[in-house]
Structures are given as C-alpha cells and as structure tokens.
Amino acid sequence: MNSRTVRLSASALLFCALVSPAWAIDNSIPAIHGDLSRTLLGDGTGTIIGIVDSGVDDTHPALTGLDSLGNPRMVAEANFVPTEPANTGDDVVGHGTWVSSAALSSDAINTGMATDARFVNARVLDNGGGFANDVQVRNGIGFAIGQGADVLNLSLNYFAANSSGNSQLDLMLDWAAFNRGISCAVCVGNISNASGNTPLVRGPGSLYNGITVGRTTADFTRVSTDSAIAFTADGRMKPDVVAPGSALMLANDDWEGAAPDWETTAPNGAQLSGCSFATPIVAGLMAQQIEAGNTHGLSTDPLVIKATVMNSALNILDKSGSAWTPGQPGSASDVGGVYTVTQPLDTDSGTGIVDGLRLASQYLVGEMGPGAVGPVGWDLNSVANSQFIDYLIDPNLILGSTLNATLAWYRHVGRNDNGNGIIDAGDSFFSLQTLSDLDLQVFRDGILIAESTSNLDNVEHLKWSVDEAAQYTLRVKGLNVFGGNEQFALAWYGAAVPEPASLSLLLLASMGLAILRRR
C-alpha cells in the first residue's frame, strides 16, 4: 500500500494518509452513529477546533460561511512555515483541507462530525508536507490555543520517533489539557513498509493527557493493518480508541480549478485513507460533546471527555481478526482469585471504536457519585494517597451483560514563558511531579473480583461480564498519589434491571432540546 508522496527531512512528518478502496465519508459517520450524536449532543455550535496541519482552503463551500450564531466559521489563520513567508495559511498540499472536512464539513451529502463548529487554521507543514523540526508545529499549537481552541487536532507524526511522551511537543499538548482545559485528538501513526517506519505509536501520539486515535478498515469491523499500535517507548498503551479512516471522500483544496469539489482519488488513483482522517472524526465528536456540556451545564474537563469517549467505545476485532483483549498475553490473569489487568487496553484498538450514540447516553445522564449511582454515569472527583472512593451501582445489573469502566487522570505539566507573553515554541514545558498511580477495582457484594493496575499509564480500564446477580461496586484507589490529592474522571456503563430510560426516549428528548435551542 503506497502513501501519498511527501518530502521528509531527518525529523520529518509521516502523514497519517494512506490509500485503499472506495467508501464515502457519510457512510463512516453513520457507522459510529455520529449523525445521531449530532442530534443528541449538538453539531459543535460555539466550539472551536484547532486544525494544526498543512493549512486549510477556507473558501471551500463545506468550510466557509457563518455558523448558526452568525460568526465566521474560520476564527483565524496563520502560517508558521518560515521558508514560505508569503503563504497566509492556504493549503497547497491538500492534507489539512481533507482533515478539516472530516471534522467540520457542512456539506449536505459529504457531512462532517461537527457541522457548525468553528476552526483555527494553523499552517505548520510546508509545500512538501513536512517540517524540519517541531518548532513550527509548537508555534501553530500555541496560536490555536491563543485563538480559543476547545479541541486540538494533530493528524501528523514524526517519521522515525517512538517517543516516551517527554518531547516538548508531547509536554506542550499535555500542558494544554492540564492547564488550559483543551482536549486533544492525535493520530497514532500509519505503518508503511515502503518507508521502513516503526509499527509502534509515534509522537505526539505518545502524549498522556489527550486521546490518541487509530483507524479501522473500510467496513468498520476491525483495526486496519496500517494503523500503528502499542507500546510507547516507555511501555504505555496507545491508541486510546479507533475510528473510521479508510477510503473517505474529503474536501478538495483545489476545488476552484478544474478539479471537483470533493477529492475522490489520491494522486495514485485510490481513495484517501489513514489515521489522519480517523483523528478529526474523534475531534468532531469531542466538539459535539463540548457543545452538549456547555448547553446542559455538564463538565467539559478533558478528563471527563477522555473517560467518557473511551468508555463508550465498542469492541472491535484486532488486525488479525481476534476479539478485543487487554494487553499482551499474560497481562490479564487471576491473582489470588481476582481478575487482574496490568495492561488495560487492547494493543491495536485501545478501548474500541468510538460510538456517538453510546457516548451521548454515557454523558447526558450527568455527573454522579460517589455513593449510590445509576448503571450508567460518570464523575469528576479527586482521591488522596492510600484512600479510595466507592460507587455502588443500583439497581442490580443484568446477568450476562457487560460492565465497562474507565478511569483517567492527568500528567501534571508546567510551563516557563520565554518572556514574550504568548504560548509558542520558545516556551519550555516540564513535568511538575511524578505521575500518580491510581487503580480501578470492581467488587461484588463487597468482595474484590477484578482490578486494573497499570503502573505506567494514566488510564485504567475494565470490561467485566456480570456473572452473578449481586451489588456491584466500582472503587477508585489512590495507590501512589503525589501532591495530596489527584483529580480523576471515572465513567461506567452497565445494563440494569429494569433498564434505565431507553436510548430512543433519550433521542426524542434531545431532539426536543435541540429544536428549542435553535428557535
């Protein structure tokens, strides 16, 4: 499988943009119920996505004009490629426009995830699609942050680097989440044998506090063989989730010329594929969720976004066609009669393929706990060292159903400004403290039966088959907490007897809210 031809330097970029058989973007988004979640959560109104890429053709009909509040869809643009100073942000490569359309397209047929969201265009890739170092990328990120981005989208990777998460680029993105409350979707990387690149995750997909995205096959049933996998150089698990990113029809940056409005073929005659295009689908989903949070007074903290997006994902087959399983063989086992997971995510798919409908039902129930909670919910809380917090699920869960739970917390990152008062590559970013270690446990009638105990990741995740009618309890345990208390987000999803309000009722209620909002 051939990649789109780009110029690459020693520390160059690998586009997450490969090619494969035909499929349309509007098939991919319904496949993850992204069309339904637009009704349930929102279409991104009032949110801003920072597109840090090769520029954007903001005159494309799917990306131009005003949002429903009367604001220009493009908030601001700037070019950070020092060798091309005359460019004001225009996309001469195509990649940034393709990425933008997956997240933002308002076209009636080729519709993106967040059709009313606005965007910042930070052009950081040169006319060959590469960059000499990450300085211009970090300058672009700082610009997007300064222009009010709620979500950052980075559909780019270093070509050869398998980062431990400690590059300035990784740290800057983690700081944006921890300090500024900005969610980030980052491409895990593509595998291209012709390029000889590593099959493992590459920076900045190795960040801690964002969501790293892999891609599925065109039929959405398994992880693509071209999608990079765990582990990071320091042994952490990525990707966090996967999303559709194979054979999409995306907006053409050269639509004003003889070319069609929509890019149906790459230069070699095959349609556009890569985790570059899975990533903005997740960014758009997060923009939907942030609109819902702002509308209904729910937390939009990146920890909540991450825990709920990951926990609402659905199982998907790995590259070989095998079922979802945590970690490598031997990483999940019985320890003293307790099912114990030390590598909580599937090495290929993370927690699975994102699902907008399930996310809506996960998130819109609102914050709960601790104490007695419903079968579906989430909480943003904190735990002290050697302490724990319990969530008692009531009513009882259905026998044979699955209880999913995801716990996320921050890597703490600080920043030293270089004296110019703006966020840019001249600043230095650094870890403020050792990463806290939290565990996630499941109890049945007060007896510990399962736990997720990674000592490397800042995520824990469990899938437990409900094998007995009993009282199930989730516990967040502060094993090694630095700095007194550690903030966390916990999300859980179970099926109870009787079922809570059905998704169809939730859909109808949200449709009513959406109609009222637009009057």
How are the secondary structure elements laid out?
Blueprint: E1 18-20, H1 25-31, H2 34-40, E2 48-53, E3 74-79, H3 95-104, E4 118-123, H4 135-146, E5 151-154, H5 168-180, E6 183-187, E7 211-215, E8 241-243, E9 250-251, E10 262-263, E11 271-273, H6 275-296, H7 302-311, E12 332-335, E13 338-341, H8 356-363, E14 371-373, E15 376-384, E16 388-393, E17 402-409, E18 413-416, E19 428-431, E20 437-444, E21 447-452, E22 459-465, E23 472-480, E24 485-493, H9 503-517
Parallel strand pairs: 2-4, 2-5, 3-4, 5-6, 6-7, 7-8, 13-21, 14-16
Antiparallel strand pairs: 1-11, 9-10, 12-13, 15-24, 16-23, 17-22, 17-24, 18-19, 20-21, 20-23
Uncertain runs with pLDDT below 50, 5 residues or more?
Answer: 1-16, 18-24, 500-505, 510-519
Strand order of the largest sheet: 3-4-2-5-6-7-8
Tell the overall outline.
globular
Radius of gyration: 22 Å
Measured by DSSP, the beta-strand proportion falls in 15-25%
**Class of secondary structure makeup:** alpha/beta
Mean pLDDT score, rounded?
A: 88
Q: Number of helical segments?
A: 9
Termini, distance in Å? Answer: 49 Å
Number of strands: 24
Q: Tell me about the biggest sheet?
A: 7 strands, parallel
